Amino acid sequence: MSTTFKAGLIQPSVSNEMAENVAFIREQARLVRDAGADFIMTPENTGLTGANREDTLAKAQTEETHGMLAACRASARETGAWFLLGSIHVRVPGEEQIRNRSYLIDPSGGIVASYDKIHMFDVQLAGGEKYRESSTFKPGDKAVLAETPWGVLGMTICYDLRFPYLYRELAHAGATMLSIPSSFTVPTGKAHWHTIMKARAIETGCYVFAPAQVGTHKGSNRKTYGHSLVVAPWGEVLADAGGENTGFIVADIDMAKVAEARQMVPSLQHDRKYEAPVLHKPAVAKAAE
Predict the structure, then answer these.
(1) What's the chain look like in SS3?
(2) 44, 59, 72, 257: which one is catalytic?
(3) pLDDT tens profile 50-87
(4) Can you list the domains of the chain with their CATH numbers?
């Protein structure tokens, strides 16, 4: 395996019309490849951001006919780069709900692996924003690892990042890189985005690649935080796309840094099994006779 490469993360602001999103991703893929990227990545919901639940369900496509999947496979072939399609909305025949699915694509356009988002973002934020992904998407139930020329990739999506045990298990199973394509809200992004991404890198000794959506999305008025990130295993932010503009970032990756970080703090070797916690309560004093 090669030990160095350039990672390129595309930061779009997708609309609820797939054709214009396909055009943007295709253009950016060419530009980021021209900038030297060997591994090109896009965020969650690359295909479209639906205006509402009904719009999202109506526009979901099957894997065999999906316009964005076909476009990204074509981009991989044309550029000769590896490609992570962060996620698209995939309809599975016979199922009412759809899947939020990520794809790893090789330079021939072949699908190496796919991953269905496990954790559903069902929350109501203090500012009134409300999300209930479980009403639209069927959650996955399998963690996924995939081989690349530079190391093993652990595939996750957005809200998964709040469940550290998933990343610990991926690292123990061989992951040296983690993909966390996201479409993060502005309030949670301001509060937690950089902190959690750095934590996932530090606690696993992995590179973290987090391509993200940005801005106000045409056709849905949803707002996303941006700040696509590349984080090194020691926690350094190597590239940050900011929270204002669409485009891409490129970062130099040296996979030797994984072993270096894990040697300095070998916490993966120190995990132990332990009994479930027991709640201890103070003794109730007897009343004086």
Answers:
(1) CCCEEEEEEEECCCCCCHHHHHHHHHHHHHHHHHCCCCEEECCCCCCCCCCCHHHHHHHCECCCCCHHHHHHHHHHHHHCCEEEEEEEEECCCCCCCEEEEEEEECCCCCEEEEEECCCCCEEECCCCCEEEHHHCECCCCCCEEEECCCCEEEECCHHHHHCHHHHHHHHHCCCCEEECCECCEHHHHHHHHHHHHHHHHHHHCCEEEECECEEECCCCCCEEECCCEEECCCCCEEEECCCCCCEEEEEEEECHHHHHHHHHCCHHHCCCCCCCCCCCCCCCCCCCC
(2) 44
(3) 989 999 999 999 999 999 999 999 999 999 999 999 99
(4) 4-269 (3.60.110.10)
Q: pTM of the predicted model, to two decimals?
A: 0.95
**What does R_g of the chain's alpha carbons equal in angstroms?**
20
Catalytic entry in 59, 72, 117, 198:
117
Answer yes or no: 158 catalytic.
yes
Given 158, 198, 206, 257, the catalytic residue: 158
Q: Which residue has the tokens 């949670």?
A: 188
203 is catalytic: no
Residue 72 is a catalytic residue: no
